[in-house]
Amino acid sequence: MIRHLNETDLTEILSVWLNTNLQAHSFIPAEYWKENYDIVKQMLPQAEVYVYEQNGHIAGFIGLMEQEIAGLFVQDTLQSKGIGKQLLDYVKKRKSCLTLHAYRKNQRAVQFYLREQFYIQSQETDSSTGEREYVMKWELKADRMADETAFQQ
């Protein structure tokens, strides 16, 4: 089930955030993620966050800051089971355009987003990690938007 973030979810969400970052970004020192834990804890309630709840536990979540995906995280033991795709599809129904930053070395994430109709808009260097990253974008196609508008009426 996908739903909005509740304040009581914060501890579990932060655990998913930290563990997933440590696993997916082994090319970045673990201390970087641990040092940013409190900042993320403060920012999460300010973001538009949707959680994927399974058997009473958070299996994954997606966080948005307006049109930007600030993060999409799925517990490592539940990855490649369609949870990330469901979360992404959920927000695609609510936005006509989405952007995100993905580390170039995180090829699993890059391939996932490419498969989900994102394209690489540009490359830059993350000033806080020094790592190269892609700026990726997805846009609702005009013909699909017309179909969805007609369907909703």
The 3D shape can be described as globular
Secondary-structure element sequence?
A: EHHHEEEHEHEEH
| Tally of individual helices | 6
Low-confidence stretches: 145-153
Mean pLDDT comes to 91
> CATH top level?
Alpha Beta
Give the beta-strand count.
Answer: 7
Main sheet characteristics: 7 strands, mixed
Report the portion of residues in β strands: 25-35%
Indicate the CATH topology.
Aminopeptidase
Q: Specify the CATH architecture.
A: 3-Layer(aba) Sandwich
Q: Could you give me the name of the CATH homologous superfamily?
A: Gcn5-related N-acetyltransferase (GNAT)
Distance between the termini: 26 Å
Structurally, the number of domains stands at: 1
Counting helices, strands and paired strands, the structural category is alpha+beta
Summarize the structure.
The protein is α+β, with helices and mostly antiparallel strands. Helices cover 38% and strands 31% of the residues.
